[in-house]
Amino acid sequence: MHILTKTIVAGLMACSMAGSAVAQDAAFLASEWEYGPAYDVEGEVEIWNTAKQKILNGEHIIGGTVRSPDSRIYCSMAESGAWDFMWVEMQHDQTGWESLAAMYRECPDAAAVPGVRIAETTEREIQHALDAGAMVLVVPTIDTAEEAEEAVKWTMFPPVGRHSAGGGQFSNFYADVPGGYRATFNDNIVLILMIETLEGVENVEEIAAVEGVDALFIASGDLGNFSGYQQGDAEYEELVDRIFAAAEANGKPVCGPLDWRTSREGYSCFQGPNDLGLVANGSRSAREASEPQ
User: Fold this and answer.
1) What is the mean pLDDT of the chain?
2) What are the residue boundaries of the structural domains of the chain, listed by start?
3) HpcH/HpaI aldolase/citrate lyase domain location, by residue (predicted)?
C-alpha cells in the first residue's frame, strides 16, 4: 500500500473512531444512570457507630477535645469512659494527618468514637479524615446551604455523595462491622456543621434543611467574635435562638459547649474541655486534695 493511501486510510479510521466516541458520549448521560445493587443491605441497616445511635435515641453525646498530637494523650482520654466521641482539633491547632492517623491507630477499640474537627469543606480535608478512621466529622464556619451540601457531598459515598472508595486505615478498624463499612457508612457517619458567622445565621434555615447533616453546632465563641456581642446580650441571644429554632424545625439536634448542658435547655451534643485544660485542672485538683485540712 502506498504511503499516501496508508495516510488516507489512517485518517478515515481516526475520524470514524472519533465520530463513534462522540456518538457514545452523546448517548451516555450520568444523570440518567440507575445506581446498581452492589452495596444494598438486606433488611434494616444496623447502626454500629455508638455516637450515631445515641443521637438517634435522643441521648446526649459529649466530645472530648484533643489539642496535643500525642497519641498517648488521645488514647488516655478515648479510653477513659468520659467521652462519647473524640474531637481532635485540626482547625485551630497544628496537628497533622499522620498524627491523627496514629492516634486512631493506637487505640482502635477505645470506648470513644474517633472524631475530628477539620478546617474546611474540601475533598482533601474530608477524605483524609474519613480514610484515617473518623466517624464523627465536625466542619466549621458553614455560611450557606451550598457549603453544607459540599460537606455532605465529600462525606457520603455514592449515590448520595462523591466520597471516593480509596484505601485507608479505616479498613483495619471497621472490617467486621455489620453489613460492611462501605454499604453502611452513610447511615453511620455523624456530620456536625458549625454556625459561627452572621452569614451562617442569615442562611441557617436553608443550611438546617440540607439532607445528610446530623446536627448543627452553635459556635459560642466565634458567634461573639463575628457579632461583637457576648453571651447574655440580647443581640447575641437572638442569634442563638435563630440557629436553635432552625435546627429544631428540621429535626436536627443542636450542639454547643459543655457548660450549656446545664445552663440551657434543649441541647443534646457538646464539645468537652481540651486535654491541656484537663491536665492543668487535674494538677490543681491533685495539689488541693493533698493540702492538710
Assistant:
1) 92
2) 46-288
3) 109-251
